[in-house]
Structures are given as C-alpha cells and as structure tokens.
C-alpha cells in the first residue's frame, strides 16, 4: 500500500473551489455568528420550497422537539397527510381527482447514467462543469439511450469530499449555476422523457453546515447540540470500522469549540447527523419536500446504513435505520406518488434485501455482485457470478437491483473476503498507486486492460443480468483515469468530448480547469473522445448504443425472471431471462480463448435461437445438450422462439 494519506485528506480540497470562494449563502442570514437559526432556516425552506410557495399542508414541520431532544426512533413523525399525489411536481388528472396514480415501475426498464455536473460540460467557459453544460448535452445522452440520470451532489459545499460534504441542502453550488439553471435542466430532461434522481446525503453534513456550526456552540443536551452525535470520550462504539482507513484513524474527532468528540463515519469534516433527534428527521423531510416539489424523480440515498448508532453493534443497517427509511418512503409516497429511492448500502446481499421488501427502497446497488464480475473476469470462470446469483435473497416484486461496473468511488472491495480482495488487487491494481482504502481507483477501461472484447463482455453482462444498469459517465467511450490525482479524483476527470482544447470540456484557460484532462497516451483525449467515436461505426460508443437499443426491445431484461442454465464448461456462464412468453438466452465466455459448451436446454426443445443483434437463426434446440462455440470473451443474446411462438413453462 501507498503511505497513509491522512494528511492529504485534510488538504484534499486544495486546488478545488472552496465554499468561501463560492460565496456562502448562509452568511449574513442573521444570527450572532452569521449562521441562520434553524427556525429561520426552516422558514426559508418553507418560503423557497419548490416553487416559492409556503410549505404545503402535510409536509414535514420543524417543531421544537420534546425536551432532551432524544426520542424514540420508531416514533411516528409529526406529519399531516395531504391529498395531493403528483407526477413531475404537478398534480396529474388522477391526482387532482384525488386518485393515487398507479406506479409505473419505470426504474425497472431504465438505463441510468451517473453524471458529475462538475466534470461533464462547462457551459460558461469558467473551467468548471455546470447545469447549463449538462443541459446542452442531454441530446447526446438521449441518443446514447439513457433514460434516467443520477447526479452526484451539486449543493453548496466546501468540496472537501467533492460535494458529499453538504453545507446547504436546498441550493445549487454557485460554481454549477443557479436553482433556475437546475429547473431548466430538469424540464429539458423531462421533455426528453428522462428521469432525474440526485444524491441525498442523509448521514452527515459538512462541518461548514450551519447546523454543525450552531451545534458545536450550543449548550450540551440542548436541541441544537443534539443535531449531531457527541461524546465526552472516544470510547463509545469501539470497534466500529473506519470506512476511509487511508485517511482517518478513528470515527471520533475532538472539537475544541464544543469541547467534545463528534462522530463521523467518513471524513472528520463530515459529522454524522443524529437521527435519534426527531428534529433532524423532520429537517431531512423538508429537504426531500424541497426537491420533490421541483419535480425530481427520486434520490440515491447516500451511505444509508449509517444513520443510527448503537453500542455493541457495527452501527450499520440497524432496525432504527430501516424504520426511518420506511417513514421516508411512506412520507414521499403519500405526497408525491412514485418517486424512487435507491439505496447506497455497501452491505452483504441479505442485508441489502432488507431495504427491498417493498416498503423501504425501490432499488439498491448490488455491491456484492460488482466485485464478483471482476473476479470472474480475472479468473476467467463463471463461478463467482454463479455464487452470487444462487445465493441472491428474494426481493419484493416492485423492487429492483441497480447493477454497476464502476462509479465515482474506488472499485470497492468491501464485500469480498480478504483473500479475494488480495486476488483482485493483484489482478487489477498491481501498481499500489491505484489502490485506495479497500478498493481500486481506476476506471473501467484501464481495469480491463483497454481490451475491447473484455469491455464488451462486461457491458453484455451488465445489461443482461437481473437489474437496472448504471453507466458511469465517460465509461461509454472507454475513458482512462489519472491515479496521480488525490483520493477518488482519479476517476473524476473532465468528460472527453473532442480532441480539441481541454478535450472539448471547456473553453477556459487550461490552467483554470476544475480538474486536469487525461493525457495518458492510451487514453489521451485526442484519441479517446465522443466526437471521434461518433464518427466511427465500430467505436465502443456506437457499439454500446446498439447494445442499449437491443436491450430496450426486450422487457425481460428489466423485469424478467432468471433461470440458470447448466453447462459442461466452467468458463461459460449461461442463463435465460424470461417474462411472459419472452425468453432470452444469454451465454458468456469469461475466458480469453475460444470455448465450446454443451447447455442443458431440454426445457426449450423445439425453440429456435435467434441472435438478438443480427437476427440469424440457429438450428432448433433439442432435448439433448445444445452445443455452442464462443470466441474469446464472446457472448450471445438469443431470443428463444418456438415456431408457433410459444415458450414453455419454466422448470
Ligand atoms: O458521503 C461519504 C461517502 O459516501 C459514499 O461512500 C460510499 O463509498 C465508499 C467508497 O468510496 C464506500 O466505502 C462506502 O461504503 C459508501 O457509503 C459516496 O459514494 C462517497 O463518494 C462519499 O465519499
Ligand atoms: Ca462553468
């Protein structure tokens, strides 16, 4: 491992815009220390909520807590029901008639694209991506086939954790534009039929958030103090793991102003909110109101397991946390109808399934599957994937896994055994510079050796296994990374739009860019960029567009069951996705060599496999094993068709 980076962590905001540069909206709002009192903050939210309207009946109210501030987490919040059930921020005809709008389960058929406003496209030429820039690129995303966007945090923040350190939940970071710019972006996305979800950083704030600044000065035991988790000694919750071990030694940090320790699961500049305090829960519901009234389609719930702490536990996924998620879901559903909650919970599958029982989240990222896709590619055998699929716990019919290969963080190896982690590090991060915490800070293409066949295979699995695929911006063109940037900025470099100035990301002076563009020779923006790939019919980008278009023809991929198909070659993975009379056979060769496989497809005897891409039909399936050959890292998607159109019942 590289030398510990704890000091780096405290400096990591350097070179990036700071909140003070970005004109903090809270200063001057009143209060002796320049910080708005919470009640005033609540009033502001009420005034600004959604479209400049006062808080609607039925939304959360910030009432003074009962004395002592603690409270029973299972207690029902003070919420008055409201009759409105809106679609896209406006009551629909049904809602206006008082009828709930039936859920569409749109997220099951979605193709989600994770995008960082900061590094996607600079619309005003100041070197930093912004909402004007993102809006200008919506046509590109639509043509790619994307149907939903997930935006990383774009709120006012000192950016010491790239926005996951929120200083104001209900505004836009000035570097990214205005709330008006956000509204225009949302309207334009909706006009193209795209949904938008954003990160909701529930667990913690920045130390610069007015709530923390007030808490640290407040009297111990007071309602303001109790917005965060304090202790006189760092001995509470001993043994709870540190999530960023390269940067932090402990989950407690001494605050000289409060003269107490505060709890933080992530960086020391990210104090955990105290969800035992009903005021915190209400405050977060007001944040939810603010964005949903604007018409947002849902939230990625960041760091969801860590909301509550209890002595003697791992302080993760506690019953109290699930109780709060249920309240959050019920609150949203009663007021806004179908808005999606996507859990970011880096936990084993059995734990994840607890969020997916129908009354908490709609989706959860499949953290156990992701590293096993990479393990299967490294070992060139199907077993690691099969193991996850066989052990997969049941989830409610309306729920869905969110599948991903890469995201804005390190490729986290928290969900594999220490031996598997070592194996993955050896296979994908031989250079210690590529490692961070318990993971690997590399993008998809460098991880897979820029090998086009392996990239296509990885995408073919992402788009055919049960769940909704999530693409990380830039991975559609096989962008590289910069492991010499601090922390996870390695994988957050500017989008490469062209071979021109600043990769087409910005017209600014190159020295003013929010992050350097990639110039590593194999991934240099002059070679790897959208413009060049759009012009090349065989580019990765055009190939992926075709793959997405094919997936969209078959609802079985988003909504169907999974049937594993037995074969006689451990290097080949085979399964059928079924929905009604639609059945798609997926066969994937994990090895770099040609493979043959005999598949037990007796249940489909009589069916004709038709290639979903080219339409060629193979000989009919018989009761005896069906023989297929696959090229290196080859894969097939076959539509199983009976001559008379009937597909047999599942076994
Ligand atoms: O807001 C703090 C962090 O929350 C998310 O972290 C998640 O990613 C971590 C890896 O970087 C992972 O170890 C942890 O279990 C997750 O909660 C968010 O995605 C991070 O960017 C952020 O720093
Ligand atoms: Ca800009």
Rg estimate, integer Å: 25 Å
- Can you give the helix content as a percent range? 25-40%
CATH level 3 topology of the domain at 106-203 and 278-551: TIM Barrel
CATH class of the domain at 106-203 and 278-551: Alpha Beta
CATH architecture label name of the domain at 106-203 and 278-551? Alpha-Beta Barrel
Catalytic activity: D-maltose = alpha,alpha-trehalose
EC number: 5.4.99.16
Region (Disordered): 1-76
GO molecular function: maltose alpha-D-glucosyltransferase activity
Features:
651 residues; alpha/beta; TIM Barrel; Immunoglobulin-like; 8-stranded parallel beta barrel; 19 helices; 23 strands; 15% strand; globular; binds the ligand OC[C@H]1O[C@H](O[C@H]2O[C@H](CO)[C@@H](O)[C@H](O)[C@H]2O)[C@H](O)[C@@H](O)[C@@H]1O; binds calcium ion; EC 5.4.99.16; metal-binding; isomerase; calcium
List the helices and strands and how they pair.
Blueprint: H1 6-11, H2 38-52, E1 86-87, E2 90-91, H3 93-96, E3 112-115, H4 117-120, H5 131-136, H6 138-144, E4 148-151, H7 179-191, E5 195-200, H8 210-217, E6 230-231, E7 252-255, E8 260-263, H9 278-293, E9 298-301, H10 319-336, E10 340-343, H11 349-353, E11 363-365, H12 369-379, H13 383-391, E12 400-404, E13 411-412, H14 418-428, E14 435-436, E15 439-440, H15 444-447, H16 452-462, E16 468-472, H17 530-535, H18 540-553, H19 555-559, E17 561-564, E18 572-579, E19 582-589, E20 595-599, E21 608-611, E22 626-630, E23 635-641
Helix pairs in contact: 2-9, 9-10, 12-13, 12-14, 16-18
The protein binds the ligand OC[C@H]1O[C@H](O[C@H]2O[C@H](CO)[C@@H](O)[C@H](O)[C@H]2O)[C@H](O)[C@@H](O)[C@@H]1O and calcium ion.
The ligand OC[C@H]1O[C@H](O[C@H]2O[C@H](CO)[C@@H](O)[C@H](O)[C@H]2O)[C@H](O)[C@@H](O)[C@@H]1O binds at residues 161, 164, 201, 243, 266, 302-303, 344, 346, 408-410, 412, 414.
């Amino acid at each position: 491992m590289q030398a510990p980076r704890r000091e780096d962590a405290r400096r990591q905001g350097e070179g990036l815009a700071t909140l003070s540069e970005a004109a903090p909206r809270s200063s001057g709002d009143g209060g002796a220390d320049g910080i708005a009192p919470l009640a005033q903050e609540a009033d502001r939210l009420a005034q600004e909520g959604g479209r400049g309207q006062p808080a609607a009946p039925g939304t959360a109210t910030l009432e003074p807590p009962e004395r002592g501030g603690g409270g029973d987490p299972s207690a029902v919040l003070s919420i008055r029901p409201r009759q409105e059930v809106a679609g896209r921020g406006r009551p629909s005809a049904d809602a206006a008639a008082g009828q709930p709008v039936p859920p569409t389960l749109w997220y099951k058929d979605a193709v989600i694209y994770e995008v960082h406003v900061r590094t996607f496209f600079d619309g005003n030429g100041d070197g930093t991506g912004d909402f004007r820039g993102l809006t200008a690129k919506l046509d590109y995303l639509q043509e790619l086939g994307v149907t939903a966007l997930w935006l990383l945090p774009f709120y006012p923040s000192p950016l010491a954790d790239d926005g996951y350190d929120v200083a104001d939940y209900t505004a836009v970071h000035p570097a990214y534009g205005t709330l008006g710019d956000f509204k225009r972006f949302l309207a334009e996305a909706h006009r193209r039929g795209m949904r938008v979800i954003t990160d909701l950083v529930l667990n913690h704030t920045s130390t610069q958030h007015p709530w923390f600044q007030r808490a640290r000065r407040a009297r111990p035991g007071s309602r303001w103090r109790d917005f965060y988790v304090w202790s006189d000694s760092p001995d509470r919750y001993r043994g709870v793991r540190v999530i960023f071990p390269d940067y932090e030694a402990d989950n407690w940090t001494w605050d000289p102003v409060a003269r107490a320790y505060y709890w933080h699961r992530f960086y020391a500049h990210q104090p955990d909110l105290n969800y035992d305090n009903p005021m915190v829960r209400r405050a977060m519901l007001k944040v939810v109101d603010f964005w949903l009234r604007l018409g947002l389609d849902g939230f990625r719930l960041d760091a969801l397991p860590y909301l509550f702490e209890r002595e003697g536990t791992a302080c993760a996924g506690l019953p109290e946390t699930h109780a709060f998620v249920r309240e959050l879901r019920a609150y949203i559903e009663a007021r806004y109808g179908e808005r999606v909650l996507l859990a970011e919970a880096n936990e084993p599958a059995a734990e994840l399934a607890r969020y997916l029982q129908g009354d908490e989240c709609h989706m959860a990222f499949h953290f156990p599957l992701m590293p096993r896709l990479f393990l299967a590619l490294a070992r060139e055998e199907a077993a690691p994937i099969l193991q996850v699929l066989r052990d997969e716990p049941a989830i409610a019919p309306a729920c869905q896994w969110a599948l991903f290969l890469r995201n804005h963080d390190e490729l986290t190896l928290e969900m594999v055994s220490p031996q598997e982690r070592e194996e993955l590090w050896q296979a994908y991060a031989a250079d210690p510079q590529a490692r961070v915490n318990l993971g690997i800070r590399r993008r998809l293409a460098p991880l897979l050796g820029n090998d086009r066949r392996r990239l296509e295979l990885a995408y073919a699995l992402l788009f055919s296994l049960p769940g909704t695929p999530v693409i990380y911006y830039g991975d559609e063109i096989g962008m590289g990374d910069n492991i010499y940037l601090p922390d996870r900025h390695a994988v957050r470099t500017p989008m490469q739009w062209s071979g021109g100035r600043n990769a087409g990301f910005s017209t600014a002076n190159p020295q003013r860019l929010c992050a350097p563009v990639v110039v590593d020779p194999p991934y240099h923006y002059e070679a790897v960029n959208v413009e060049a790939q759009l012009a090349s019919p065989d580019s990765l980008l055009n190939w992926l567009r075709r793959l997405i278009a094919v997936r969209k023809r078959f609802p079985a991929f988003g909504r169907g069951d999974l049937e594993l198909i037995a074969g006689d070659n451990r290097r080949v993975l085979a399964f059928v996705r079924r929905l009604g009379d639609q059945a798609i056979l997926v066969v994937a060769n994990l090895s770099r060599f040609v493979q043959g496989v005999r598949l037990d497809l007796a249940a489909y005897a009589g069916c004709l496999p038709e290639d979903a891409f080219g339409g060629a039909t193979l000989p009919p399936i018989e009761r005896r094993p069906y023989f297929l050959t696959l090229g290196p890292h080859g894969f097939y998607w076959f539509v199983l068709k009976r001559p008379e159109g009937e597909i047999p019942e599942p076994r």
